[in-house]
Amino acid sequence: MPTSSGWVAYLDAAERAAVLDVVEDVTELLAAEEPGGPWPQVQLSEDPVTAPADPALRRLLPDASRGAPEVAAEFRRLTEGELRTTKTGQLAVLRSALVAGTPEVRVARTDAPAVAAALTDLRLVLAERLGIRTEADADAAYRLVVEGGPLDVTDPDGVARRFLATVSTLLGVLQESLVGLMLDGLADAAGDDPAGDDAAGGDAAGGDAAGGDAADGRSAGRASSA
């Protein structure tokens, strides 16, 4: 829901803990140095930078060009360090909102874009872990949450998959709600813009003036005819 300074969501302790776990996992994923990789010792190097081996991390740091590996490698060399730093910072903003209060999660207007981006990254990682590639895959994961039935504690893989699908669904609700409120805020700001009102007033005045000119023209025509 919107507030005077931003937006607030309500999460219970279990929901908050689950989201925080994923935030921590993805933060570690972005910070981890892979064998032969440049992170975190070298931010920008003359040496080639290979794509991440972990497919989830590769979703966060995709190739810039699929058809031109040399271009993709050069772009990765120039940008990957900064991109990792940006994404880690966005996750830190989300983490701060999650640990700041209970049960409210408050997001300042200035932090909303970073939080929305962090939620996107969390969902990308979970989608990879769940093997979601298509709309049908996404629907199946959602049905697992809402129609999955009792958990079979003797099936740890099934329990883990249900947990990831549940967190992914929760993140989707949070992200869609936040983005929707952000868009509503932009629309409200545009509607309240005094400059826009002045411009509209000016247009109306211009319309009146044009109408006056047209009336004068009609009068002139009648006078001339007379």
Which helices and strands occur, and which strands form pairs?
Blueprint: E1 6-10, H1 13-31, H2 55-60, H3 69-100, E2 104-108, H4 112-130, H5 135-147, H6 156-191, H7 194-225
Helix pairs in contact: 1-3, 3-4, 4-6, 5-6
Description:
The protein has a two-stranded antiparallel ribbon with strand order 1-2. It is 69% helix and 4% strand. Helix 3 (69-100) packs across helix 4 and helix 5 packs across helix 6 (156-191). The chain is built from seven helices and two strands, in the order βαααβαααα. It is globular. The termini are far apart. It is mostly helical. The chain has one domain. Pfam families: DUF2017. Residues 211-226 have a biased composition (Low complexity).
Salient structural properties:
mainly alpha; 7 helices; 69% helix; globular
Mean pLDDT: 80
Strand order of the largest sheet: 1-2
Q: What is the percentage of strand-forming residues?
A: under 5%
The shape, in one word, is globular
N-to-C series of helices and strands? EHHHEHHHH
Unreliable stretches: 34-42, 199-226
The number of helical segments is 7
| Tally of domains | 1
Major sheet characteristics: 2 strands, antiparallel
Instruction: Please count the beta strands (DSSP E, at least 2 residues each).
Output: 2
Helix/strand/pairing category: mainly alpha
Q: Rounded to an integer, what's the Rg over CA atoms?
A: 27 Å
The termini sit apart by 68 Å
Task: Tell me roughly what share of residues is in helical segments.
Answer: 55-70%
